[in-house]
Amino acid sequence: MSVCTLRINDHDLAVPLGTTLLQAARQAGIHIPTLCFLEGLSAVAACRLCLVELEGSDRLMAACVTAAAEGMRVHTDTPRLREIRRTVIELLFTEGNHVCAVCVANGHCELQNLAVEVGMDHSRLPYRFPQRGVDLSHAQYGLDHNRCILCTRCVRVCDEVEGAHVWDVGWRGEHCQIISGLGEPWGDVNACTHCGKCVEVCPTGALFHKTDTSEEKQGHPERLQALMHARTHQQWNP
Amino acid sequence: MSACLRLCTAASCRSRGATELLEHCRKALASDQAQLRVKEVGCLGPCSDGPLLAIDPTDRLLSLQEVNGSDLETSLAEALQRGNDATGLKQWQPSGSRELSPDEPFLNLQRRLVLGRCGVVDPESLADALAAGAWQQLPRVLEQNDPPAVIEIVRRSGLRGRGGAGYPTGLKWATVAAMPGSQKVVVCNADEGDPGAFMDRTLMEGDPHTLLEGMAIAAFAVGAQQGFIYVRAEYPLAIERLRTAISAAEQQGWLGRGIGGSGFSFEIELRVGAGAYVCGEETALIHSIEGRRGVPRPRPPYPAEHGVFGLPTLINNVETFGNIPALLELGVEAYGTGTKVFSLTGHVQRSGVLEVPMGTSLRTIVETMGGGAPQGRQIKAVQTGGPSGGCVPASALDSPVDYDSLKALGTIMGSGGMVVLDDTTNMVDIAAFFIAFSREESCGKCIPCRSGTVQLEMLLRKLLERRGQVADLEQLEALCHTVADASLCGLGQSAPKPVLSTLRHFRGDYLALLPAAEVQR
Ligand SMILES: Cc1cc2nc3c(=O)[nH]c(=O)nc-3n(C[C@H](O)[C@H](O)[C@H](O)COP(=O)(O)O)c2cc1C
Ligand code: SF4
Ligand code: SF4
Ligand code: SF4
Ligand code: FES
Q1: Of A58, B53, B191, B427, which is the most buried if we count CB atoms within 10 A?
Q2: Mutation to probe ligand 2, out of A195, A208, A209 (largest number of atoms < 8 A from CB)
Q3: What rounded mean pLDDT belongs to chain B?
Q4: Model pTM score
C-alpha cells in the first residue's frame, strides 16, 4: 500500500493513498465539522462545512471528498474558514423554521450542536420564516419540512443501504424539498420498508418517530456504521 | 456564384417576420424564368436591422425592416422581368428597404472563421455546405491518421474554451486522449443559458455542419466513438436544423460507422435539456445526459477521467468545436490569435452577432461596430460574461477583449454575451437582476449558493428600496465572498461576481442609495 505524508495544522501524518483529508484529520484527532457527510454513505460535499485551506492555493477544498496527496499542507481552522462555517450555519437557520424549544431533537441535534460550536448566538442575516408542511402520513414516522436542512442523508441511506429509494430531492434552489415516492405522501409509498434508517441518520428533528416528543429524539448514525461494517466484513455478531 | 437571394430565417429575423417575407419572395420567383433561387440562411450579423436579405453574386445586404411583404413581392417580380443587370435585380431596392454598405464597421471589422459559412449556406442543405467547403478537414485528418498531430495543432494554436472558463483546449484533448480504455465520449455543451448570449444558437441555426465536423475531428483525435450534443429545449430551430444536419451527414457517411472508408466510427445523439442554467455546468450536464437530476458534483474526478456513464469524456462548447475546421484549414500561422464571437445587445445602436479577432478593443466593438449608445446617451458600462461575469466601466473601454485583460478588470470573457449599459442604468439594479437570475437557477444542492443568493438578493432589494444602512453594504460584501468561496460549483462560485464588480467600479451607485447622513461619516 502506498503512503503519502502531509501536514494538517501542526500535525505531520502518513496516510494510505486515497485517504480523504477528513479521514486523515480524524485519525490525527483533529476535528473538522461536517453535516452532509456520514460514514457509510457516499459523500456529496453539499454542506460545505468541512472546507479546508491548502497552502499555495486560494481555492478551498471540501475535506470529505478531497484525497490526501504527498506534501499537502492543510489548515482546518483559519479565520476565513471560521467565518464561512458560521455563515453557513446562519444560512441554514434563516432558510428553515428551527424552533428548538419544541423540537423532538432539542439537545441531540447536530445542527444545534454546530451552532454552538461555531459560536452562533444569533443570525446576522434575517430569518425568512418560509411556509412549509409536515407529513404525518406514515404509520410510524413523521417528516417536518420546517426542520429539514437538505443534507440528503435520508435520500442516500434509503437508496444506498436499504435499497428502497423512497426519497429524492424535488424542485430547485430555495424551493428544494425532500420528496417521497413521486411526490406522494410518505405513507402511500409502497417502496418504504419501514426500516427507520432514514430517521436514524437524520441530523435534525426533521424525520422522527411519532412516539417521540420534545427532546426525545436521538439520532443513531452508529447503527448505520455497524451495519456497513457487518456487510463489508461479513461479521454479523457484534 | 449564380444569382441567389439569401434571407436570414434564424431566430431574430424570424421574430421580425422573415418567414412571411420568404413566402413573398418565393411567390415572386415562382413565375421567374431566370431561375433565381431564394435560400434560407443563418444569421447575417446586424440583427437589429433584420429581417436581412443578401443578394448574390453582388453580396449586397438589405435591411427589410420597413418593407411590406406584398410590395416586396411585386417589386421583386418586376426587377426579375427586367433581368439581372443595372436596371434589374442588380440594382433592385424594394421601397422601404435600406442597403447596408459593406464598408460599415459592423461588417468589415469582422473576421469570420467560426461563422465563415453562417449566413452563406442553407443550414438545411448538406450539398450547400459541401459546396462552401464543409467536411473537407475531416477526410484530411482521417487520411493522415495521426491523432496526436491534430491535438498538437490545437495546442499550438492556443485555442481556449469558449464556454466561459477558458481552459486550454489542446490540453483538454490531450488529457482525454491519454486516458486508458477504448470507449470514450465527446460532448458538445450547447446549453447556452446566459441571459444576453446567443452565439452558440447562431452557429447551430446557421451552419450546423461546422459544429458536427469539429466534433468528429475531436472524436478522432481523442479516440471517442460516441457523441452527444446537449442543447436546451428553448432552441427548437437549432434542434431541428441539427437533426437534419446529423441525418444528412450520416447518409453521406461523415457520421456513423467506418467514416470516409476508414476504421473510424462516430455517432452523435442530441440530448434536449429542459433549460436549467446549471445544466451547462459540466458535471450537472453529464448527470442530465445520463437521465439523472442535473446537479453538479465535486471535481475531481474531472469529466476527462470520469464522465458520461463513467467513461473518459471530452466536453467542449459549440464555438470551441466550431473553431476546429477553420483552424485546420488555415494552419496555426494563418489562424493567428483566433477570433471570438460576441452577441452584442443592450443600449447600442446596432445589436447582433459579430466575430472579431481576439484582442479587439471593447471600444471598437461597442462604439465603432455597435454605433455606441443611443442618441443623447453615454455608455456607462459593458457587462460581459453574464451571471458569472461583471461590468467593465466606460473608462476601461480601450481594454482588449481577451481572457486575461477582462479578468484583470474583475469580469470574464465568458461565452460572449455583451450587454451595453448607458448612463440611465443603475448598476445596483443590474447586480440585483443577475443575482435574482442565479438565485432562480441555483440547483439547491449546496447551502452557500441555495440560501446565500436569496440573502444577497434581499440585501440588494433593501438597498434599492432605500431601506439600507452602511452595515448592509458591509454585510453584502462579506456574504459575496462567502458564497464565492464556499459554493460547490461555478454557479455559486461566480454568482456574486456581478455584485462585486459593480461594487468595485460603481460604488457611487450603491452609496447613493444610503441615507446621506450615514455616508458622510
Ligand atoms: C453554471 C454554469 C453554466 C455553464 N453554462 C455553460 C453553457 O451554457 N455553455 C458552455 O459551453 N459552457 C457552460 N459552462 C462551462 C462548462 O461547464 C464547461 O467549462 C465548458 O462547456 C467547457 O467547454 P470549453 O472548454 O470549450 O469552454 C457553464 C459553467 C457553469 C458553472
Ligand atoms: S423507513 Fe427505510 S425504507 Fe422507508 S424511507 Fe426510511 S430508509 Fe427508506
Ligand atoms: S429529512 Fe433529515 S436527513 Fe433528510 S435531508 Fe432533511 S435533514 Fe437531511
Ligand atoms: S453552487 Fe449552486 S448550483 Fe452549484 S451545486 Fe451549489 S447550489 Fe447547486
Ligand atoms: S461534510 Fe464535507 S461538504 Fe458536508
Answers
A1: B191
A2: A195
A3: 95
A4: 0.95
